[in-house]
Automatic annotation (TrEMBL):
One of its GO terms (molecular function) is beta-galactosidase activity. This is beta-galactosidase. Residues 376-551 form the Beta-galactosidase domain. It catalyses: Hydrolysis of terminal non-reducing beta-D-galactose residues in beta-D-galactosides. It comes from Actinophytocola xanthii. The lineage of its organism: Bacteria, Bacillati, Actinomycetota, Actinomycetes, Pseudonocardiales. It comes from the Bacteria.
Amino acid sequence: MRRLLLPFLVAAVAFATVAALPAAPRPAAAAPDRGHEVTYDRYSLKVDGERVFLWSGEFHYFRLPSQQLWRDVLEKIRAAGFTGVSLYFNWAYHSPAPGQYDFSGVRDVDRLLDLTEELGLYTVVRPGPYINAEASGGGFPAWLKQVPGRARSSAPGYTEAYHEWLDHINPIIARHQVTRGGSVIAYNVENEYAANTDAAYMQDLQDTARAAGIDVPITHNQCCDASWTPTWASGLGAVQIPGVDDYPQSFECQTPEVWGPWGEGVTERLSENAPVYGAEYQAGAIDLHRAGYEKCRELTGPAFMKYFYKSNLIASGATMHGFYMAFGGTNWGWLGQPNDVYTSYDYGAAITETRQLTEKYDEFKRQGYFVRAVAPLTRTDPADAPASANPALGTLARSNPDTRTQFVLVRHADRASTTTEDTSLDWSTPDGEYQVPVRVSGRDAKILVAGYDLGGQRLVWSSSEIMTHERIAGRDVALLYGRSGEPGATVLRYPSRPSVRVLSGSVRTSWRDGDLRLDYTHAGLARVAVSGGGRPPMLLLLGTDQTAAEFWRTDTDAGPVLVRGTELVRSARVGGSTLSLRADTAAPGEVEVFAPRSVRRLTVGGESVRVRPTTSGSLAGRLHGPAPVRLPKLSGWRYRPEAPESRPDFDDSRWTVADRTTSVSPFPPTTLPVLFAGDYGFDYGQVWYRGHFTATGTETTVDLNAITGRDGVYQVWFNGRYLGSARGGVQADSEPPVNQNPGPGSFRLPALAPGERGVISVLVENLGHNDDWTADDNRFKQPRGLVGASLPGSTATVRWRLQGAHRERADPVRGPLNTGGLYGERHGWHLPEAGGSWAAPRPPGPGVSWYRTDFRLDLPRDQDVPLGLRFDGTGPYRVQIYLNGWQVGRHTADLGPQREFVLPAGLLRERGANTLALAVTALDEAAWSPPRLVVQANHWTGRR
Ligand code: IPT
C-alpha cells in the first residue's frame, strides 16, 4: 500500500486541476455595440426588432459535474433545433455556509454562460432563489434552515440571506445578457410561487435584479394552470412575461399508456401584453414510483410530444417554450431532494443521463427545426379552421396577420383515440379553396401549412409537415415528412409551368392553373428537383419520420448546410472549398452534405472523406464507426472496516456537544437537548451521535426518533454491540394531524447494573432536505438526524455529542454536497491520495466497510465512450460511490431501482489512473459482490 501513496498524491494534485478546470479568460467587458435590444409584445420576444421563437430545453449544470460534458450536452441540445436553454441556478450548490460562495470549476456558471453564448443558444436564467427541481431543499442551502423568518417571504432573516445569493449570481448573469452581447434573453424570478405568497418579496426579487443591471424581460413560471393564484400578471410583484408550467402526462411512469391524466396541457395566456409562455412544458418525468426512467420516457414519448406539443402550439400560439428536461443528469453527492428522486435524474428526457440521443430527440428535432425555419409562426392569431369531413378528426387553426400564412392542426377529436382515420379538409387557403386529404394514424397530430413563402417558392398547401428549408447553393432545399406509409400531397404555385424531375422515390406530378401538385406515399426519402416556372430552383425532399430525422442543419459563415447521416452534427465550417464537420458516428455509414457552392471537399472530425457528387446536387461519402473498446476488469480490491465510533472507548472528546435547548425548526424537539444535526452545522450526509450515561439499573430500551428522508435508515450500537437499525422518518408535523413520532426505533439494552457506564452510538443517514413547495417552512425546515432520544424508565441523563461534515469545512473543490460524516469521509478514505492500512476484502457487516481499487484507462482520443459502474448484487446494504474522490452515486441494494451509475468524463480520467472507493453501509451481514465497469455507448467523434 505504502508503495502506492506517492503516485496517488501526484495524481490527486493533477486531478484537482482537471476537476476544477481553470476558468477560461474572461472576455473584456462587453463593448456597448455588441449589445442588442430585447423587447416583446403579445406575440413574441424580439431581438433588435426581429421576432424570436424561443424553443428552449431545460438543463441543470449542477447535475453534470464536468465542464467538458456541458459542451457535449449543449451541442446536442443545439443540434436538436432548440433555439435556447433554460437554466436553474442552485444556491445550495454554491454556498456551503452563510457568506461563503464558490463559482469555480464545476460551479463556474460564468463559463457556462460563455458557452451558451458561443453556441448561440438564447438562455432563460432561473436563479430562484427557490427552484424546487427535486434538488435538496429545492435549491435552498441547508444552512438557511437555521435562519429565522419564513423562507420565500419578505421576513428580514430570509431577505438578508437571499440578497447574499442574488448579490453573487446577479452580476454574473447581468454581464451575459443579450443586451450586452451575451445569451441571456429572460430572467425568471422564483418558481411556481403560488402558495403563501408575499407580493413584496416577489417585487423585491425584481427590484434587486434591476438594481444589479438585469434589463432583459422578467418572467415567472406559474404552477400548473391559471387556477392557481396569483398569476403574477398584475399588481405588486407582477412580472413582465408571466408563464405557466404544464405537465399534462403526470409523473405516473408506471402506467405509460394512460394518456393526459392531468388535462389538455394548453398553456394559458396570462397577459394581453406579453407572449404566451410555456415556462416548463413536460418533456419527461420524475420516477416517483421507481418504475425506471425508460417508463418515464415512454410516458412522455414521441406520441405524447406530437399530440401535446403541437396542440399546444396551435391552441395557445405560445412562442416561448421551456421543455423540462432536455437532459436530466445526475443527483451526485447529496444533491437530490430525498423523497422523490434517487441518484439518476435521467428524467426520461430526450437526451439520456449517459448523453445518448433517443427517439424523443428525433421528435424534438422534427418540431424544433420546423418552429425555427417557419418564421410566420412567431406572430399568429386564432383563425377559422377548415372543416374536417370525418368528425373523428378535429382541426384548429392560427394565421399570421402579416403574411396570412395558415397553420392547421389536425388530430383526433378524442385525444385518447388510437384509430387510423382519413379525412378531407375543406380548406380556404390564402391561395384559394382546396379539398385536402389527410390521414392521422393513432396518437399523432400534424401542423399543416398553407400560404407560405417557402424561400423563393410559394407553398399553397401540403399534407406533409415541414421540417426545414434552406437556401443552399442558389436553390431552395426543403425537407417535408409524414409517417411511413401515409399518403401525402404538396401543392406549389408557379407563374409558369416548371420542369419537374423525380430523382428518387415514387411521386406523381400534375399541373393545373399555376398549381404544381405532387402526390406520393411517404416511404424512405423521395427527391424531386423543380426548376424554371419563374422561380429559383428547388430540391424537395419527402421523407418519413425516420428518414427526416436523419438530417442535420447547421450554419456556417458561408451559409447553412444540411447533412444526412451520422449520429450527430455538432458544427460545421467552410474554409475555401472544404466543408469541415464535427460529427459523431455510432457505426460505419453514409454521409451526404448539401453545402454552399464553393464546397468540393469534406472533412469529418478532422479526417478527410472521399466524396462524389450526386444527382441531387449534394456530395456523398462514407464514414467509419468507432473502434471497439476494452475495459479493464476491476480487481485488486482492498478493504478497510470503519465505525470505530461504535466502540465504547472511542475518543469523542473533540466532538460537538449537543447542548442546545431551542431551535428555529418548526418541529419542536420531543426530547432535550436538541439533537437536530443542522443546528450544529452538520448539513449533508451521515451524522454520528454518541450518548454517554451512567446506568440506574432500570434501563430496558433506548427509544429513538430520526428524520432521514424517504428510504433512509439509522443504526444503533450499545457499548460496541450492534442493536440493529430502523427506518428514518420523512417528516414530522407540529400541527394536526400530528406526527411527533417520526422514524421511531426502540432498541433493547442489555441488563445494566446501577453505576455502570454506557455509550449509545447512532449513525443516521441524511438523504437530503425537503423542498419548500408550499412556501411555509413546514417541510423545508424539517430537521435531519436524531430528533428524539430517551431511556424509558430511567432517570439517567444522557450526554450527547455529534459529528459529521461541518458546513465550515466543505471540500473546496468538490463542494459541500460531496461528503457526509462517515469516519472514512472525515479521514479522506474516499480521496485518491488516501493512505492507511487496507487489507484483503471481507464481506460487509453491520456498520460501514470501505473498498477501494485503482484502474487505468486508455480510451481512444477520438471516441466518446461513456462508462458506467454496474452493481449486480442485492442485499441489506447501500453503497456510496466515490470516483477520484467525487461521490457520483448511491446504490441502494436493498431497494433499488438503480444498478448502473454514470462515471462522468472529466471526473473520470479517460486516459490515466483512476481510483474508485466504495463506502458500504450494511444493515446486517451481506454478501460482497464488487461492481464492474461497463461501456454505456461508443461513438467516434473525431477531433473534438
Ligand atoms: C415543477 C417545478 O417547477 C420543477 O422545479 C420540477 O420540480 C418539476 O415540477 C417536476 O420535475 S412543479 C409542477 C410539476 C407542479
